[in-house]
Specification:
The structure holds two protein chains of two kinds. Chain A has helices spanning 7-10, 14-35, 37-45, 67-72, 106-122, 141-153, 165-175, 184-196, 218-228, 341-351, 386-404, and strands at 88-92, 100-104, 130-133, 156-158, 179-182, 208-212, 231-238, 243-249, 256-258, 263-268, 281-288, 299-308, 320-322, 332-334, 337-339, 358-365, 368-376, 409-413, 420-421, 424-425, 428-430. Chain A is of the alpha/beta class. Chain A has two domains: 72-328, 3-Layer(aba) Sandwich (Rossmann fold), CATH 3.40.50.12780; 337-430, 2-Layer Sandwich (GMP Synthetase, Chain A, domain 3). In chain A, helix 11 links the parallel strand 17 (368-376) and strand 18 (409-413). In chain A, helix 5 (106-122) packs across helix 6. By secondary structure, chain B is α+β, with helices and mostly antiparallel strands. Chain B folds into two domains: 2-68, VC0802-like (2-Layer Sandwich); 70-141, VC0802-like. Helices cover 34% and strands 38% of the residues of chain B. Chain B has a six-stranded antiparallel β-sheet. In chain B, strand 2 and strand 3 form a beta hairpin. The two termini of chain B are 15 Å apart. The mean pLDDT of chain B is 89. Classes of the chains: A alpha/beta, B alpha+beta. The A-B interface holds A 377-379, 382-387, 389-390, 411-417 and B 5, 7, 9-11, 37, 39, 41-42, 44, 46, 63-67, 69, 98-99, 116. Bound molecules: zinc ion. The site of zinc ion (ZN) has 6 residues of chain A, from loops.
C-alpha cells in the first residue's frame, strides 16, 4: 500500500490545492511588497500592487525574477525577513558572476525537510531505514537538505558527504545503508568502484536511491538499478527555490510530483515569456508561496520541462514535471561530484592575495573523469628552486582537493597563456563532450 | 662576492627557450652561464648575465615570470679533485647546496661553478678560508 508523508497535501483535490495556493500567493506577494524594496520597485514599475493578486490566475501579472536579480541584490537584498530571523544561509556560485546567497528561517527549514520527507516516503523509506547522504555538505544545498528530510522521517542518517569512494562503499556495506542520495553519475561511479573492490549488490542492503542535481537518462537509471540493486528515483530542486525536494519521483518513475502547496510551477516560452498551457514544453518557472526568508516570485529556472496534471498510480494529485531536458548552469559533474569553477577561484584567493588566472580541463580517460587545473604563476609564487614550485603545486592541490572533494592535477603555467575571450579567462575546457 | 642570478619560469613548450634568449640578445644582454632545471611540466631557466637589472626588466616587459637570487661563483682549477675541495668544505660546514652548475671561460683553462647554497655569507666565509677564490660580480659581468 502506498504511504504518504502528508496525505492531505499530496492527495488534495485540484480545487483544494488551488484555493490554498491562491491564499498563500496573495499573502506572499503582500509580504515581499512590504518588506523587499527591490520587489516593490519592480511591481510599481509593472503597475501592480498586492491588491491586484487575488489568486493563482493573477500570477502572470507579476514580473519574472532572474538569476541576475539575485546577483544584483547580493548578498541579502531579496531577503524578506530581518536577519535575526534567518537561521541558515546556503549559496550557489557561478563562474560568470558573483555567487548567490539564499536564507532560511526555522519555518523554511521545516518546509524543506517536509518536502524531502515526502520524497523519501514516496521512495518507501521509514524510520527503520538508514540514509546514506553522499551529497556534499556545506553551502551546497544537497547534503543538508536531504539530511533534514531523512531526520524528519526518523531514518538513521549517515552524513558521509562527498569523496573517498572506497570508504563510502565500506560504510554502505558495514553500516547497512538502505537508502542513498547523490548525483546519478556518482551512483554509477560507486557501482564501478564496488566492482573493482569485489563487492556485489548482494553484499549491500540498498533499497532505493534519490538521485538529482544533474540531468540523467533512462539508460543511466537502468544501469544504476542493476548494478546497485536498488530502485533509482529522481529528485529535483535548486538552491534559489529551496534546494532538493522541490519535486520528487514516486514509484511510478514517470515524472516528478511538484510540492505545489509550497511552489507554484508554470511553463513559459523562454523567448517571449508567454505562459504556456499545461502539457507543452517550456522553461519552468517557480514561485515560492510558503517561504519566509527567501520567497522568489516567478523565478526563471532556465530548466526546460513539461508540466502534466494527470492521475498517477501512486494516488498523489500533485502536478508532475517531466524530466528537465537541460540546464544551462556552469556546474560541472566530475566523477559524480558537483564542481563549480568558482570553488577553485576561492581556494586560490585564500592562498594568495589575488586569485591568479586558472582553467579547469576535464577529460575522460579509461572511462574515468580527469581534472587538471592550470594556474598561471604569479611573481609571488615563483622562486628559483624546483622544490618550492612543487611545494606550491602541492599546497594548491591539497586545498583544491579538500574543497572540491575530488583529486585534481595542478599544473603551473606561464602568465598570459590561459586563453581569454574579451579579457576574461575561459574557466573550463570540457573534453568529455 | 655575491652574483645576481636571474631565474625564469618556463613551460616545457617548443620554442620557449629560444624566445627568451632572443629577447636578451635583442637587448644586447650577454649570457655568461646558463642552466635549466626540468620537471615534467615546467622548467626553471637560470642565467648569469652581464647586466642583471636590465635583463630582469626586459624579461618582465615580455610577461616573463622572473626572480633574482644571490649565488656564489667559484673558480675550479682543471685538475683532479678541483671541485671536491669545494664540496667537502661546504659539507664539513653543514651548508647544503640547493643546486649548482658549471661553465667554462673560453680564454682560460678554468671552470667556474655557480653555487646556490642555503647560507651565502657562511659559505663565502668557509670557502675563502679554505683558500677557494670567489669571483666578484664585476669579474663575471666583465668576462
Ligand atoms: Zn505518483
Amino acid at each position: 500500500m502506498e504511504r504518504y508523508w502528508n496525505e492531505n497535501m499530496e492527495c488534495a483535490t485540484k480545487d483544494e490545492m488551488k484555493a490554498l495556493q491562491s491564499f498563500r500567493l496573495s499573502q506572499t506577494v503582500r509580504r515581499v511588497y512590504n518588506n523587499v524594496p527591490y520587489y516593490r520597485e519592480r511591481m510599481e514599475k509593472a503597475g501592480i500592487t498586492p491588491d491586484d493578486i487575488h489568486g493563482v490566475e493573477d500570477l502572470k501579472k507579476l514580473p519574472f525574477t532572474m538569476k541576475q536579480d539575485l546577483r544584483d541584490t547580493y548578498p541579502y537584498g531579496l531577503f524578506a525577513v530581518p536577519m535575526e530571523d534567518v537561521v541558515r544561509v546556503h549559496a550557489s556560485s557561478g563562474t560568470t558572476g558573483k555567487q548567490i546567497v539564499v536564507g532560511y528561517t526555522q519555518h523554511d527549514l521545516d518546509v524543506w525537510s517536509e518536502c524531502c520527507a515526502r520524497a523519501l516516503t514516496a521512495a518507501g523509506a521509514t524510520n527503520k531505514d538508514f540514509m546514506h547522504v553522499s551529497y556534499g555538505y556545506g553551502l551546497f544545498t544537497g547534503g543538508l537538505g536531504l539530511h533534514g528530510g531523512a531526520e524528519k522521517v526518523g531514518m538513521t542518517v549517515i552524513p558521509v558527504s562527498t569523496g573517498n569512494t572506497n570508504r563510502q562503499i565500506n560504510v554502505i556495506k558495514d553500516f547497512g545503508s538502505t537508502y542513498i542520495c547523490c548525483t546519478p553519475s556518482y551512483a554509477l561511479y560507486l557501482a564501478e568502484t564496488m566492482k573493482e573492490m569485489g563487492i556485489t549488490k548482494d553484499d549491500i542492503k540498498l533499497k532505493a536511491g534519490l538521485f538529482g542535481a544533474e540531468p540523467w537518462t533512462e539508460e543511466m537509471r537502468r544501469e544504476i538499478e542493476e548494478n546497485l540493486g536498488l530502485k533509482a528515483l529522481d529528485i529535483y530542486g535548486l538552491t534559489e527555490i529551496i534546494g532538493p525536494g522541490v519535486a520528487f519521483e514516486c514509484s511510478e518513475q514517470s515524472g516528478m510530483h511538484i510540492n505545489e502547496d509550497h511552489f507554484i510551477a508554470e511553463t513559459i516560452d523562454p523567448d517571449t515569456g508567454e505562459v504556456l498551457p499545461e502539457g507543452s514544453q517550456g522553461e519552468i518557472v517557480f514561485t515560492c508561496i510558503s517561504k519566509e526568508a527567501f520567497p522568489l516570485l516567478r523565478y526563471r529556472t532556465r530548466d526546460i520541462g513539461i508540466l502534466k496534471r494527470e492521475k498517477c498510480s501512486c494516488g498523489r494529485t500533485l502536478i508532475k514535471m517531466m524530466k528537465p531536458a537541460g540546464r544551462s548552469d556552469d556546474m560541472l559533474i566530475i566523477r559524480g561530484v558537483n564542481v563549480f569553477p568558482s570553488q577553485v577561484e576561492s581556494v586560490l584567493l585564500q592562498l594568495g592575495n589575488t586569485a591568479p588566472y586558472y582553467q579547469l580541463i576535464v577529460d575522460r580517460v579509461n572511462n574515468t573523469d580527469t581534472l587538471e587545473i592550470q594556474v598561471e604563476i604569479s611573481p609571488e609564487m615563483f622562486s628559483d628552486t624546483v622544490k618550492s614550485l612543487e611545494d606550491q603545486e602541492k599546497i594548491i592541490k591539497s586545498a583544491v582537493e579538500s574543497t572540491l572533494g575530488i583529486a585534481a592535477k595542478i599544473r603551473l603555467v606561464e602568465p598570459k597563456t590561459i586563453q581569454r575571450t574579451e579579457g576574461k579567462a575561459i574557466r573550463v575546457i570540457d573534453k568529455r563532450k | 662576492m655575491l652574483i645576481k642570478q636571474i631565474s625564469i619560469f618556463v613551460e616545457n613548450k617548443p620554442g620557449r627557450l629560444s624566445n627568451i634568449t632572443n629577447i636578451l640578445k635583442n637587448n644586447n644582454i650577454d649570457i655568461r652561464a646558463l642552466s635549466i632545471a626540468d620537471t615534467k611540466d615546467f622548467g626553471i631557466l637560470r642565467i648569469i648575465v652581464n647586466d642583471p637589472e636590465k635583463a630582469c626588466n626586459v624579461l618582465k616587459d615580455e610577461e616573463c615570470t622572473v626572480t633574482i637570487t644571490d649565488v656564489l661563483a667559484v673558480g675550479v682549477s682543471d685538475e683532479p679533485g678541483g671541485l671536491s675541495v669545494v664540496m667537502d668544505t661546504l659539507y664539513n660546514n653543514s651548508i647544503s647546496v640547493e643546486y649548482m652548475y658549471a661553465f667554462v671561460n673560453k680564454s682560460e683553462d678554468i671552470a667556474y661553478v655557480i653555487l646556490r647554497v642555503a647560507d651565502n655569507q657562511k659559505a663565502a666565509a668557509v670557502l675563502t678560508s679554505a683558500g677557494i677564490k670567489l669571483l666578484t660580480s664585476k669579474e663575471i659581468y666583465d668576462m
